Amino acid sequence: MKTIKGSDVSSCLESCKRVYLCGKLSGKNGIEHIENSGYEIGISSYDKFTCESAHKHTYNEEYNYVLSGSVKVFIFDEDKEYTFTAGDMYLIEPNMPYITKAEAGTRVLFTKTPGGNDKVLCPELEKAITTWTLSW
Question: The pTM is what?
Protein backbone atom coordinates (compact mmCIF):
# COMPACT_ATOMS: atom_id res chain seq x y z
CA MET A 1 0.00 0.00 0.00
CA LYS A 2 1.22 3.49 -0.85
CA THR A 3 0.43 6.27 1.61
CA ILE A 4 1.06 9.93 2.31
CA LYS A 5 0.76 11.23 5.86
CA GLY A 6 -1.21 14.40 6.51
CA SER A 7 1.65 15.69 8.65
CA ASP A 8 3.98 15.44 5.63
CA VAL A 9 1.50 17.36 3.46
CA SER A 10 1.08 20.07 6.12
CA SER A 11 4.83 20.38 6.58
CA CYS A 12 5.39 20.68 2.85
CA LEU A 13 2.69 23.33 2.45
CA GLU A 14 4.47 25.48 5.03
CA SER A 15 7.39 25.93 2.66
CA CYS A 16 5.87 25.59 -0.82
CA LYS A 17 2.63 26.77 -2.39
CA ARG A 18 1.74 23.57 -4.25
CA VAL A 19 2.18 19.91 -3.47
CA TYR A 20 1.28 17.02 -5.74
CA LEU A 21 -0.04 13.95 -3.99
CA CYS A 22 -0.12 11.72 -7.05
CA GLY A 23 0.71 11.91 -10.73
CA LYS A 24 3.52 11.46 -13.19
CA LEU A 25 5.74 14.40 -12.29
CA SER A 26 8.70 15.63 -14.29
CA GLY A 27 9.94 18.08 -11.66
CA LYS A 28 10.61 18.06 -7.94
CA ASN A 29 7.81 17.86 -5.43
CA GLY A 30 7.92 18.73 -1.74
CA ILE A 31 6.98 15.20 -0.64
CA GLU A 32 7.19 11.65 -1.91
CA HIS A 33 4.11 11.41 -4.09
CA ILE A 34 2.25 8.37 -5.37
CA GLU A 35 3.40 7.77 -8.95
CA ASN A 36 0.47 7.52 -11.35
CA SER A 37 0.25 8.21 -15.07
CA GLY A 38 -3.54 8.48 -15.39
CA TYR A 39 -4.50 11.02 -12.74
CA GLU A 40 -3.10 13.94 -10.75
CA ILE A 41 -4.14 15.30 -7.41
CA GLY A 42 -2.61 18.05 -5.35
CA ILE A 43 -3.17 21.02 -3.09
CA SER A 44 -2.43 24.68 -3.81
CA SER A 45 -1.95 26.89 -0.77
CA TYR A 46 -1.85 30.68 -0.93
CA ASP A 47 -0.49 32.40 2.17
CA LYS A 48 -0.84 35.82 0.48
CA PHE A 49 -2.94 37.25 -2.33
CA THR A 50 -1.85 35.51 -5.54
CA CYS A 51 -2.82 35.79 -9.17
CA GLU A 52 -1.83 32.83 -11.35
CA SER A 53 -0.89 33.31 -15.02
CA ALA A 54 -3.59 33.05 -17.67
CA HIS A 55 -3.48 29.60 -19.23
CA LYS A 56 -5.42 26.64 -20.58
CA HIS A 57 -5.03 22.88 -20.52
CA THR A 58 -5.03 21.18 -23.90
CA TYR A 59 -6.37 17.78 -22.81
CA ASN A 60 -6.85 17.70 -19.03
CA GLU A 61 -10.08 18.29 -17.18
CA GLU A 62 -9.18 20.11 -13.96
CA TYR A 63 -11.50 19.74 -10.98
CA ASN A 64 -11.01 22.18 -8.12
CA TYR A 65 -12.46 21.99 -4.61
CA VAL A 66 -11.96 25.02 -2.35
CA LEU A 67 -10.86 23.84 1.09
CA SER A 68 -10.56 27.31 2.63
CA GLY A 69 -10.57 30.93 1.58
CA SER A 70 -11.80 32.34 -1.74
CA VAL A 71 -10.84 32.00 -5.39
CA LYS A 72 -11.91 34.15 -8.33
CA VAL A 73 -11.76 32.62 -11.80
CA PHE A 74 -12.10 34.61 -15.00
CA ILE A 75 -13.18 32.55 -18.03
CA PHE A 76 -12.06 34.41 -21.15
CA ASP A 77 -14.43 32.67 -23.58
CA GLU A 78 -17.40 33.71 -21.42
CA ASP A 79 -15.98 37.12 -20.46
CA LYS A 80 -17.17 36.26 -16.96
CA GLU A 81 -15.78 36.15 -13.42
CA TYR A 82 -16.78 33.48 -10.91
CA THR A 83 -16.16 33.53 -7.15
CA PHE A 84 -15.74 30.31 -5.18
CA THR A 85 -15.45 29.86 -1.42
CA ALA A 86 -14.84 26.95 0.97
CA GLY A 87 -16.95 23.97 -0.04
CA ASP A 88 -17.38 25.04 -3.67
CA MET A 89 -16.20 22.91 -6.59
CA TYR A 90 -15.60 23.94 -10.18
CA LEU A 91 -14.43 22.30 -13.40
CA ILE A 92 -12.06 23.79 -15.96
CA GLU A 93 -12.56 21.99 -19.25
CA PRO A 94 -9.84 21.34 -21.85
CA ASN A 95 -8.96 24.32 -24.06
CA MET A 96 -10.82 26.77 -21.78
CA PRO A 97 -8.51 29.78 -21.27
CA TYR A 98 -8.76 31.15 -17.73
CA ILE A 99 -6.97 33.02 -14.99
CA THR A 100 -7.33 32.68 -11.22
CA LYS A 101 -6.58 34.72 -8.16
CA ALA A 102 -6.79 33.68 -4.54
CA GLU A 103 -7.12 35.53 -1.25
CA ALA A 104 -4.52 35.01 1.46
CA GLY A 105 -5.29 31.84 3.41
CA THR A 106 -6.86 29.98 0.49
CA ARG A 107 -6.30 26.27 -0.10
CA VAL A 108 -7.59 24.39 -3.13
CA LEU A 109 -7.60 20.65 -3.74
CA PHE A 110 -7.18 20.02 -7.47
CA THR A 111 -7.35 16.96 -9.64
CA LYS A 112 -6.51 16.56 -13.30
CA THR A 113 -7.51 13.75 -15.57
CA PRO A 114 -5.94 12.13 -17.50
CA GLY A 115 -2.94 13.93 -15.95
CA GLY A 116 0.30 15.18 -17.40
CA ASN A 117 1.65 18.64 -18.10
CA ASP A 118 -0.54 20.16 -20.81
CA LYS A 119 -0.49 23.75 -19.53
CA VAL A 120 -0.24 26.43 -22.22
CA LEU A 121 0.28 30.02 -21.09
CA CYS A 122 -1.92 32.75 -22.62
CA PRO A 123 -0.03 36.01 -21.94
CA GLU A 124 -1.93 37.92 -24.64
CA LEU A 125 -5.19 37.30 -22.76
CA GLU A 126 -3.66 38.24 -19.42
CA LYS A 127 -2.54 41.61 -20.80
CA ALA A 128 -6.16 42.41 -21.66
CA ILE A 129 -7.20 42.30 -17.97
CA THR A 130 -4.09 43.59 -16.18
CA THR A 131 -6.17 45.61 -13.69
CA TRP A 132 -8.11 42.48 -12.70
CA THR A 133 -4.88 40.70 -11.75
CA LEU A 134 -3.67 43.37 -9.34
CA SER A 135 -6.07 43.03 -6.42
CA TRP A 136 -8.94 41.05 -4.96
Answer: 0.92
